[in-house]
Amino acid sequence: MDDIGDADDMDGIDDMDGVNDTGDTGDTGDGRNPDHREPGSEDPDNLRLVHLLRAVTVEFGLRQADFAARNGMHPTDVRALICLLDAARADEAATAGLLGARLGLNSAGTTAVIDRLERLGHVARIRDDHDRRRILLRVEPAAIRLGREFFGPLIDGVLQVLDSFDPAERETVRRFLTATHAVFAPEPRP
């Protein structure tokens, strides 16, 4: 895999699309934006954190793509498995509608993803015990094992890093990631 460099090497990407690091184009439609910071007025330490977060996100995306390619899946299939595993951890009913909403897919696209994952033996459609009309999606144990074999060493590495933090530091990391996630997903998810 190519070395993407550290987060500070990615500074040239910042201004490529006319959007600053907050996602704001600065355009209010009338040519002024009183809340927009002047270029260069951002705190360099905060921007380094944004760039590091972006670098981690890019690396994770590359690992997901590698996992997908090695296992005959589309990258969207991997995101679907993650959504379904997250729903199971949160004790949410994993329906096709929930999956489609989380992935931003229409009904046909959602069905195509589920069909691919079912054909590969990664997902099963099961009837809801409480409402026999409703079909739930379950990630199969073999798919969980496959994911653990690939992502397990990475997860273990992150857990080792977290073990080196004291509880207050971990809480700070948790608050930062939770708030940052809210920036990217501002509307309540189904």
Can you walk through the features of this model?
Helix content is 55%, strand content 5%. The chain has six helices and two strands; from the N terminus they run ααααββαα. The longest helix is centred in the first third of the chain and has 27 residues, at 44-70. The two termini are 36 Å apart. Residues 1-28 have low confidence and may be disordered.
Helices and strands in order, then pairings?
Elements: H1 44-70, H2 75-89, H3 96-103, H4 107-119, E1 123-127, E2 135-139, H5 141-163, H6 167-184
Antiparallel strand pairs: 1-2
Per DSSP E runs of 2 or more residues, the count of β-strands stands at 2
Low-confidence stretches: 1-28
Question: What are the secondary-structure elements, in order, as H or E?
Answer: HHHHEEHH
| Number of continuous helical runs | 6
Task: Briefly note the structural class of the backbone.
Answer: mainly alpha
Instruction: Tell me the β content.
Output: 5-15%
Largest sheet: 2 strands, antiparallel
* First and last CA, distance: 36 Å
State the helicity in percent bands: 40-55%
Radius of gyration: 20 Å
**Sheet with most strands: strand arrangement:** 1-2
Mean pLDDT: 83
User: What is the molecular shape?
Assistant: globular
Keywords:
190 residues, mainly alpha, two-stranded antiparallel ribbon, 6 helices, 55% helix, 5% strand, globular, disordered N terminus
Overview in brief:
The chain has 190 residues and is mainly alpha-helical. The protein has helices at 44-70, 75-89, 96-103, 107-119, 141-163, 167-184, and strands spanning 123-127, 135-139.
